[in-house]
Amino acid sequence: MTSLPFFSALHVEAAVSTERAFEAVREAFVAYARGEWSMPPKVYVPAYPAGDFRAMPALGAGHAALKWVTSFPGNPAQGLPTVTGLVLLSDASNGMLRAVLDAAAVTALRTGAAAVLAAETLGRPDAQTAAVAGAGINGKAAARTFMARGREVALYDVDPERAASAADELGARVATREEALGADLLVTMTPGHEVLLPEGSLRPGQHVSLMGADGPGKAEIAVEELVRTNIFCDDWEQASHNGELVHAVEAGVVAREQVTEVGAVLVGDALGRTSDDEITSFDSTGLAIQDLAIALVAMKKADELDLPTIEL
Amino acid sequence: MTSLPFFSALHVEAAVSTERAFEAVREAFVAYARGEWSMPPKVYVPAYPAGDFRAMPALGAGHAALKWVTSFPGNPAQGLPTVTGLVLLSDASNGMLRAVLDAAAVTALRTGAAAVLAAETLGRPDAQTAAVAGAGINGKAAARTFMARGREVALYDVDPERAASAADELGARVATREEALGADLLVTMTPGHEVLLPEGSLRPGQHVSLMGADGPGKAEIAVEELVRTNIFCDDWEQASHNGELVHAVEAGVVAREQVTEVGAVLVGDALGRTSDDEITSFDSTGLAIQDLAIALVAMKKADELDLPTIEL
Fold first, then answer.
1. Which of A108-117, A225-234, A246-255 has the lowest mean pLDDT?
2. Which pLDDT belongs to residue B217?
3. Among the residues of chain B, which ranges form H helices?
4. Least CB-CB distance to B80: which of A71, A80, A94?
């Protein structure tokens, strides 16, 4: 009989600090860009209109991980979470399971990390203001990451009470919609059913990390506005099929060579921002390598925590 | 906090009888053939030469399932199982997890069921003898399924001790290689690294369920022998990419229209065996819908078992 450690959401948070998650996600982007880590594109299992499931495998650092995770945007109205599921971590040398982790907690940590990593990498070096639009679980994680990186952050949400409660929880500030969308470093973390950024809304020098559009039909930015930006993404294959880029690629106004993967910038294979005046955008769909990175960090702390086990 | 029931291998076996697994797998093939259940092709995560991982999602009967499962053929030499992993069962209306199950136990039940279902569907109605070549976990499951369906079964294995021990455990008979490969209803359940059935080895009227070749480079039958048979498969998309059919399709000697999915036969949309003299073959790669079917049967028994839980 094998005892498999289980990390509930609280255990994930106890094992992986926001700072450590940020570093782990950076290392994952670098390892992926160098070809050391690999990842088949995530598989969507549609259960529309209610939501969808995603099966996200990745391979790296001698391990394989699989995240089985949902997006059911109508769930909160029923008192259920939008994002739920499990991350399974296995030894790549013999296939044996090593840990099971709460997927929502892993997702929040790595999504917040990716949003801020892209903002720091692509924003102006003299960027002052930072804001997060969308104060749900992942939006709060992005705000927490900005703060862990030493920045003040303002929060905006279409629901003022949610914004106030999130700001209170984090010790952050509530912003108006106009103020948030005008921040030097902007993260949008909405359900992606409404375009937040119409044509002409961003000003020269801004950066926006577009985190919400990760499935069919979703968009946070108008195609006309996206093409005004220097476009970056987490992974071309995923972003051109399920991110903001879908709409622009389908309209024939954005091609592969106009989009840079942020990992290529991190390893020095591609340019990031090229001028103070340019607007940079980051289209995030969420990568399984990010989840693998968080799971590996958690595993290293397993012995320090009093974890429940699954007896196989 | 949510309590998620966990079915260890013993709990899966306690919850799902061989007979019930057989019926559930038949129903899954029917539902899939009718388009009621769906399934993206399984995703392979290669960790060769040691083995590989598969992420296998399916959707049906108001649920989604994901199997994360391995094939590491060299593991038994280290005292580790070839096949290991977990099946995650979720509610398709809101994405919430409903159960976690041992993947090896689910795999054995549904693989044994599929092998015998194909043999009964495609073999001659007057078939007398049944044999299983390969007496590992899944081979024993196929033998158990033949027995549950009222047939005597003979077991062959390249390792005589393994054959003897399996036969003893099941109350079955050991066969010579020649006798086994000559059975009216033959199931091959080997690692797929050696061709068991060279050109000319099968005789008129035989049926063979080829269960072992489910990954790159694997084969249990020579292409020359395969084309002597009326070819059936579990799923064209999977079988033509990762089953026995790969070699024949690549050689240009088998095309889509020469291969029938067994589900189409079960629902009456396609012919099965067309004469007593023809040889029928079934190329199985293993379908996620089969795993979903077993998980659903187990769930119905959850309340009758004293199951451990995972506290989310």
1. A246-255
2. 78
3. 9-15, 18-33, 103-122, 137-148, 160-170, 177-181, 223-226, 236-242, 245-250, 262-266, 288-300
4. A94
Closest residue in chain B to residue A39, using alpha carbons only? B45
Catalytic sites of B, residue numbers: 67
A1: nearest CA in chain B?
A: B8
On the 0-12 / 13-18 / 19+ scale of CB atoms within 10 A, B252 is exposed
User: A75 and B86 in contact by Cβ < 8 A?
Assistant: no
Which tokens is B203 given?
Answer: 């005789």
Judge whether B87 and B66 are in contact, CB under 8 Å: yes
A256-283: per-residue pLDDT in tens?
999 999 999 999 999 999 999 999 999 9
Average confidence (pLDDT) over A105-118: 98
A218/A150: higher pLDDT: A150
CA pair distance B287, B285, nearest whole angstrom: 7
Mark yes or no for CB contact B55/A50 under 8 Å: no
The token pair at A266 is 């991190």
| Partner residue facing B47 (CB), from A59, A72, A311 | A59
DSSP label of A97: E
Helix (H, G, I), strand (E, B) or coil at A197: strand
Catalytic positions of A are 67
Q: Which residues of B touch A90 (CB under 8 A)?
A: 53, 68, 70, 85
Confidence of residue A146 (pLDDT cuts 50, 70, 90): very high
ipTM of predicted complex: 0.95
Measured between CB atoms, which of A8, A68, A78 is closest to B312? A8
Beta bridge partners of B232: B260, B282
Q: Look at B94 and A72 and tell me if their CB atoms are within 8 Å.
A: yes
Size of interface A-B (CB pairs under 8 A): 134
Query: Can you state the percent helix, strand and coil of chain B, rounding each to 5?
Result: 35, 25, 40
CA A121, A124, A127, A133 dihedral sign is negative
**pTM for this predicted structure:** 0.96
